[in-house]
């Protein structure tokens, strides 16, 4: 890991133009458990896989509600995510007290991006070792943003970050055209299926290790925008019906695939 003294702080560029501490922070995101976000015309869904450090410990919280119209999921260092989420909560409250309205999603994402980028300008600071998916709705509609440790933010239609997230991204890319017109339940189903794609073969989604966050607008008569459906976190036993609906029939499909592989004597290299 030693890079000839160019990785001692977050403000020194290497001769190749790289800041190694930002790359190390990005590696922390890749080591975190996977989280998936999807956005349609009416709703945004966050789906996350939770981990526990050992069998005797509880599962780590992965989805955090920031405001009634806003929430986030994390991959990486949970302590850094807690600092950023508390900052976002203060900004959301300040917007309501000062302007009398919820803070726009793009503005609050830019604020945490600026905060993270400032850490690369001061010798005494380090980058945040966490990646975030920020989901919310405002007057312009539903939004999903990705936040990276470098301070870069970008709006996404669908996104997955964390360990083995490439498999989830493959599912999202394959079904991308369907997301825009999906309703609330359909979007949750797609999110859980994408999350399942990223699991090891010896693991399954359960009510203990999965959680879902949803926010959006209800659809009124004539397809008009209705009331705000505030950010709702599904956890624990509430995940049961969602998992049953999302994964129904998947076991039959998996059995068929296994049987086909056995007949063809193919080897699994995942």
Write the layout of secondary structure elements.
Blueprint: H1 20-31, E1 35-39, E2 43-49, E3 63-67, E4 70-76, H2 78-99, H3 105-118, E5 130-138, E6 141-147, E7 153-155, E8 158-161, H4 165-174, H5 176-179, H6 184-197, E9 210-219, E10 225-234, H7 239-247, H8 250-264
Antiparallel strand pairs: 1-2, 1-8, 2-9, 3-4, 4-5, 5-6, 6-7, 9-10
Structure, described:
The protein has 270 residues and is α+β, with helices and mostly antiparallel strands. It contains 8 helices and 10 strands. It has helices spanning 20-31, 78-99, 105-118, 165-174, 176-179, 184-197, 239-247, 250-264, and strands at 35-39, 43-49, 63-67, 70-76, 130-138, 141-147, 153-155, 158-161, 210-219, 225-234. A 5-stranded antiparallel beta sheet has the order 8-1-2-9-10. The longest helix is centred in the first third of the chain and has 22 residues, at 78-99. 39% of the residues are buried. The model is unreliable at 251-270 (pLDDT under 50).
**Which percent range fits the helix content?**
25-40%
N-to-C terminal Cα separation, in Å?
A: 27 Å
Query: What string gives the helices and strands in order?
Result: HEEEEHHEEEEHHHEEHH
Count every beta strand, where a strand is a DSSP E run of 2 or more residues: 10
Secondary structure class reads alpha+beta
Number of helices in the DSSP assignment: 8
- Approximate shape: globular
Strand order of the largest sheet: 8-1-2-9-10
Low-confidence parts: 251-270
Give the biggest sheet. 5 strands, antiparallel
The overall average pLDDT, rounded, is 88
Over all CA atoms, what is the radius of gyration?
Answer: 20 Å
The share of residues in extended strands comes to 15-25%
